[in-house]
Amino acid sequence: MKKNINTSLKSKVTKVITKKSKTPAPKRKKPERQSSSSEDSDMESETVVIPKKSKFDSILEHLKSLAESQAIISEKVDKLTASYEDFKTLSESLKIEVTTLSKKVYTLESENERLDLELRKKNLLIFGLLDNEADDEDTIKSKVLRLFSEKLSLNNITVDTAHKISTYSQGKHRPVRVQLIFQNDRDAILNQRQKLKNVTDELGNRIYINEDLPLKTRLCRKILRAKLAECINMNIPAKINYTRNEIIVNGKCFKVMNNALMESKSGPINPAQIQGTSFLSQRNNPAQIQGTSFLSQKNNTIQSTAAR
């Protein structure tokens, strides 16, 4: 009996023990960290309440930024205006300087042309004279003197030098530049050169004599003579002033500028100041224009144009 009681008690105790072992032990709660009063005060001081912006404040800020941008742009514009004024002043001074230099260049060119004409005033150019590669200066001079005496009836001409221009080319006749000692001899030859109108050399080439003029002067006279021939064909009064490189057409003055005829702003000058006669008076009285008649001048123009 006692054994049965002991066994039942043991079995109950073991059951209780097993139940206790199966039930999980309760977790220990970690002690919560208690914040001190000082930390709480710091957190309260760091938190800042940001108020919301109103539309009016945003508009004011935008207007302020626009005003600043406008001030910057105005400053830049002022600088650009000052730079432009400086550039404008410099440009005006340069224009004045260029105008002054242009006048000086024109004056120097005119003086150079005048001196060149002065050096050439005793010279003549003979075209169509028989050419030979072996001709020396004495041979050329003798041919020139024979031409003057036989064809122009001028026996007292004194020639200083006579030489061919450019290099020899077979089948072509080089022009001869003749330098005379006296200008009267040159004028006499020019007055008699119309006698060469029908004169040819041994090969049938025409011979003619022209003044030895600078290239610019030759171009000017070529333009003037072409205009004179045009006026003659149209029966319009015209008169050439070779000294001023201009032509009077029906009361209007045209000057040769930049290889073209342009109407002069100064207007026509007094016809009494112009050397030569108009072509209308030439029909009744074939007076000479600067030592040559109009017909010979027209022929010489054609010849000189072909030679050049």
Fold and architecture overview:
The protein is built from eight helices and eight strands; from the N terminus they run H-H-H-E-H-E-E-H-E-H-E-E-E-E-H-H. The strands form two sheets. It has a four-stranded antiparallel beta sheet with strand order 2-3-1-4. The protein has three domains: 70-119; 121-211, 2-Layer Sandwich (Alpha-Beta Plaits); 215-307, no CATH class. The termini are far apart. By secondary structure, the chain is an alpha+beta fold.
Span between termini: 169 Å
Number of domains: 3
Secondary-structure element order, as H and E? HHHEHEEHEHEEEEHH
Kindly state the number of beta strands.
8
Average the pLDDT over all residues and give the rounded result: 75
Radius of gyration using CA atoms only: 57 Å
List its traits:
308 residues; alpha+beta; Alpha-Beta Plaits; four-stranded antiparallel beta sheet; 52% helix; elongated; disordered C terminus
Task: Write a concise synopsis of the structure shown.
This protein is an alpha+beta fold and 308 residues long. The chain is built from eight helices and eight strands.
Write the layout of secondary structure elements.
Elements: H1 2-22, H2 37-46, H3 55-120, E1 123-127, H4 137-151, E2 159-164, E3 176-180, H5 183-192, E4 208-211, H6 215-233, E5 238-241, E6 246-249, E7 252-257, E8 260-263, H7 279-284, H8 294-307
Antiparallel strand pairs: 1-3, 1-4, 2-3, 5-6, 6-7, 7-8
